[in-house]
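Hi all, a correction to my earlier message: I attached the wrong file for Epoxyqueuosine reductase. Here's the right sequence:
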Amino acid sequence: MNNTAAHTAILKEEAKRLGFNFVGIARADFLEEEARPLEQWLKNGYQGKMQYLENHFDKRLDPRKLVEGAKSVVSLVYNYFPQEDLAQAGAYKIAKYAYGKDYHFIIKDKLKELISQLQERIGEIDGRAFVDSAPVMERQWAQKSGLGWIGKNSLLLNRQMGSFFFLAELIIDLELEPDVPLAKDYCGSCTRCIDACPTAAIAQAGVVDGSKCISYLTIELKDSIPDTFKGQMENWIFGCDICQDVCPWNRFSKPHQENQFYPHPALKDMHNRDWEELSRELFNEIFRKSAVKRTKLEGLKRNISFIKE
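and the right structure:
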């Protein structure tokens, strides 16, 4: 076994030990095929008021501009599918990924440990770890590294576990053996996600108009939710899982084994009136280390009021 193969085996072994379900590797090259679609997506205004997506265009396409001397982009999958779906008909709902503690911190800690283990076993490695926090086209890199394909809802789909997982990346200056991209799109003629989206946010297969997405409206948008979306929110007050819930590939989802993703006990007992009367004290208690803190109590109240009106 040569050094490249041995280093690749060590990386995948350590990643699995840390609980990552899948690991894929791609060469750190320019994403030539993504340049025009990204430019068009921005030109269409699909980023809405997420102006940060307009920044660092070159860095989004070239990982070597994020890490000097980068040779490999490592994509990692971490399951968050819950044992119990808390979204009930007629009740206010939050996306499954936000049930437990904020994934950014949990996965970033694992990535830091992964780099530390690689340095211990291989030697000095320079690079950076990313968890949905920098101009990295994570789904495109995951596809290039053989972890799945980009579905019609624009999410990465994996044949073994669907789409209820987080993606994370290491961009490092270590030469590794690249994996083979998945050549086939396994969505076929299915349009369930397109048909189910109540705000018609899926502009075309694989392209989402972010400015219409319920996740954007309930989290990213800081202004008032436009009245055009009245009656279309289907009781989602933080994020949305509709396009994933209807996806046939998610029948393969299995409950995660991450203790920190389990919901706060009080979250399971929340009824609509509890949400409407949620105090700052209880909000801070339930969502103290949760991704829900991104929208703040005021944002959550705004979303609830919009649905109630």
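Sorry for the mix-up. The CA atoms of residues 82 and 153 lie 21 Å apart.
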